[in-house]
Design brief:
The chain is α+β, with helices and mostly antiparallel strands and about 400 residues long. It has helices spanning about 1-10, 120-125, 130-140, 150-155, 165-200, 215, 240-245, 315-320, 325-330, 345, 355-375, 380-400; strands spanning about 20, 25, 30, 40-45, 60, 70-75, 80-85, 90-95, 105, 110-115, 155-160, 210-215, 220, 230, 235-240, 250, 255-260, 270, 275-280, 280, 290-295, 300, 305-310, 335, 340, 350-355. The protein folds into three domains: about 1-15 and about 160-190 and about 355-405, no CATH class; about 20-160, DNA methylase specificity domains (Adenine-n6-DNA-methyltransferase TaqI, Chain A, domain 2); about 205-355, Adenine-n6-DNA-methyltransferase TaqI, Chain A, domain 2.
């Protein structure tokens, strides 16, 4: 960091110039599908960018015959793309060489840095800062499916120090992200092993135990609507559908958010032992994610969730709803519109194995140990990875904070 300080003192003695993002990026381009008939492209949808690693994971091969309506933006190596639909999920990435000339969804704001003014990875790191997301949160529009216009994203003002300063900051921050990527790869390998073992443990021989539809052995209670404006620091514990697949794990004893106390009469709540299921999501995988509620008090449930009330071990149910067996059944019923949805009537048709309660408890005890190894932030690889992320975030926000030059 002393090298960075020296460069700033030498090259920015009177402060650092700030510019809007729009002033330091080129205008992007869109594809004309009629001009590329017969050619194939990789399509970067909103779900193609991992929210944690900020890497492009799975893409879809498309052509003019089957391109989705949102497949419009041409991306180039060195572009930085930022998901403007539900932006607080932080889907952003830098385009690597392998995706040069491919197609991105219109759900992204495509930022093409003027490399003589701002480096790709410098802009990439800026899009992760707390200051940027405070701006995004203040300017996003819509309640259930919020978004932020590209033009507003480009209004955000960023520091534009000399390239020598940018390169040194990028060098330091990239070291952190490289280490994170190595740890994440190792942890992902363990998660795959865990998922295989979990599915094996929850696969039962035909005829060995009773199977029933979820509707036969429980009931689905739809939550009631509350909005972002209803969230308070202290009040009624609440679970929003988006929290289920971004924050919660298999089970929870405490809620991460609360809503206003005066809403009590109009809310619907999950009770201890209920399993709260997300009925809406960006992807088929997100819909049907669940968390077993083990808290001592009732928790308010958003209207895009169901509280599943039953007489089984709640964590057993939550674990089962992670399996490939459940996912393959669920996939038949998910409505594949822009927002993926799953109804209570369709959830009720899905079958679940029902071993004796003692066997359910035994399975839960085993899976709890494996789950802790790959998800518990207080031990092992998850703890090390969490520590590295915090360290990166600390240095990123510190290194990217500049004193603005006075005009």
């Amino acid at each position: 960091m002393s090298r960075i300080d020296e460069l700033i003192r030498e090259l920015c003695p009177n402060g650092t110039p700030f510019e809007s993002i729009g002033a330091v990026v080129y205008r992007g381009s869109t594809i004309r599908w009629g001009d590329v008939a017969g050619e194939e492209f990789q399509y970067i949808d909103l779900t193609s960018v991992d929210r944690v690693t900020h890497a492009i994971t799975e893409t879809q091969t498309i052509s003019s015959k089957d391109a989705p309506s949102r497949a419009q933006q041409i991306v180039r190596e060195g572009d930085v793309i930022f998901g403007t639909t539900r932006p607080m999920l932080k889907r952003y990435t830098a385009i690597p060489a392998e995706y040069d000339g491919q197609i991105a969804s219109t759900g992204y704001c495509v930022l093409r840095p003027q490399q003589e003014r701002i480096l790709t990875n410098f802009l990439f790191h800026l899009l992760g800062t707390a200051e940027f997301y405070a701006f995004v949160e203040a300017n996003q529009r819509g309640a259930s499916y919020p978004g932020i216009p590209d033009g507003v994203v480009k209004e955000f003002r960023i520091p534009v120090p000399p390239l020598e300063v940018q390169r040194e900051i990028v060098r330091v921050l990239d070291l952190f992200t490289t280490l994170e990527a190595e740890l994440e790869a190792e942890l992902e390998a363990r998660r795959r092993q865990y998922a295989h073992y979990r599915d094996s443990l929850l696969t039962f021989p035909e005829g060995g135990i009773r199977w029933a539809t979820m509707g036969e052995v429980g009931e689905f209670i739809r939550g009631r609507r509350f909005t972002k404006a209803d969230v308070v620091c202290a009040g009624i514990p609440s679970i929003h559908y988006g929290e289920i697949y971004t924050i919660y794990g298999v089970a929870a004893c405490e809620a991460v958010t609360h809503v206003r106390q005066d809403l009590a009469a109009q809310l619907r709540c999950a009770k201890t032992g209920d399993v709260v299921i997300a009925a809406v999501g960006e992807t088929v995988e997100d819909v049907g994610r669940a968390v077993a509620w083990l808290g001592e008090e009732d928790v308010a449930v958003h209207d895009d969730c169901f509280a599943y009330r039953h007489l089984m071990n709640p964590k057993y149910v939550s674990y089962y709803l992670q399996t490939e067996t459940f996912h393959s059944q669920k996939s038949k019923y998910v409505a594949r519109a822009k927002v993926k949805r799953l109804s209570a009537a369709d959830l009720a048709k899905i079958t679940i194995p029902i071993p004796p309660l003692e066997e359910q408890a035994r399975i839960v005890a085993i899976l709890d140990k494996f789950d802790a190894l790959v998800n518990d932030l207080s031990i092992g690889l998850p703890a090390e990875l969490a520590a590295r992320r915090k360290q990166y975030e600390y240095y990123r926000d510190r290194l990217l904070t500049f004193e603005e030059a006075v005009a």
